[in-house]
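User: Assemble these into one structure.

Assistant: Restating your components, then the assembled model:
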Amino acid sequence: MSKLKEFTVSAARPLPVVVLADVSGSMAVDGKIQAANLALREMIEAFQDESDLRAEIHLSVITFGGVARVHLPLGPARGASWTDLGASGGTPMGAAFELARTLVEDRTAVPSRAYRPTLVLVSDGQPTGAWQPPLQALLASERGGKAFRMALAIGADADHAVLQAFLADPEARVYRADEARQIRQFFQLVTMSVAARSRSANPNSGPVGLPGDGWDL
Amino acid sequence: MVRVVASSVRGPAHAQDGLPCQDAWKADTGSRASFAVVCDGMGSRPRAQAGARAATLAARDAWRLWRRSTAGAVEDLIRLLEAAWRIRLDEIPPDSAATTCLVYAEDEHGRAALLQLGDGLMARRTRDGAVIVHPAGRALDFGATLALGTPHALADWSWSLTTPLARGEALVMATDGVADDFDHRRLGELAAWIMDEFGALAHPGRALARELRAWPVPHHLDDKTLLVMWKPCNSPSDK
């Protein structure tokens, strides 16, 4: 065994994934929150089952329903334990953006040796309260602006403009789920995207091979 | 006489892609002044290997002129290096050969300059075991870095002027493939290990390369360069 082990950290470089999940009252209808819980649980299990990874996937879940809060603190997905989400209240998406920015900019939580984070926004409604300034702060932040971003609009009432603004890329697409089962499919896509990056020679490069216009949820 | 142990090895990512090691280093340990440079060619650029090698030669070119002056400004050493790098590149477009650059340069008049553009590590271990890490300057994170061949200004270099290595002191220089995985609280012990275990070997660079190839951090990817320069003590009691 090399003596170098005494002078180096023992953990692989983290690849952070931060999910911003809408848990407002409207998520309680049509089985949406149940589907989101199932999808998130499956995503965690998939990350835990991955063995051929170049990075250590770290996961956090920030929820916004009535208030924004950290439901799952950022940490290795292999050690994550999932507790189901409930749904109630308004949609304080702006406060969730602020929590995400604070988390990604925290060099203790996301060290400089980490690979580029992925931010995932899932919402079925219109934000309540101011969301533009916190989103602009997130996108303008040194590290938040570099994060890969994915977004899912659930149902016809979701605010596509907000989700597109979150992506901040006219060519990036907001995925759409008209049925609860499609929430699960979206998170399977997120899982594949993150796992593919983690297996790639350069996990800082962008995800490849994601469905384009042929995406069929 | 100043001693140096250094090595660069190709990382798993470049091995997988059939690419060469894009790190480079060079050192000169003359009786009047010593010099060391470590460069990390940016993997996304097609001529990164040439850029890193040219930067080591350019840094030496600049140092050979700068060291003669009793009052040459560190900024002038940087300007010389930047110009020499472009001349060394000849017809290679600089942006295709982008590279970080870390330099330790002693002059012949009791001064030593530390220069850094981009990520990586430079740290000095004093005789009493304390470690002083050279501030790396503006951090870009997530694989992005300032470099020769990318847009930057003189102010983007992090530099300082200090005294040359004294007896019992050591300098550790490393590219980010090594530096990001180090436990920075143990840099002094790392330097002591290199000096004690490798300094006595006939081929210390080869032995260090073997260690770097067996890098113990899970799933490591990058090319790796580690350089330790030190001025030995007169006697064991000086350690």
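The mean pLDDT of chain B is 92.
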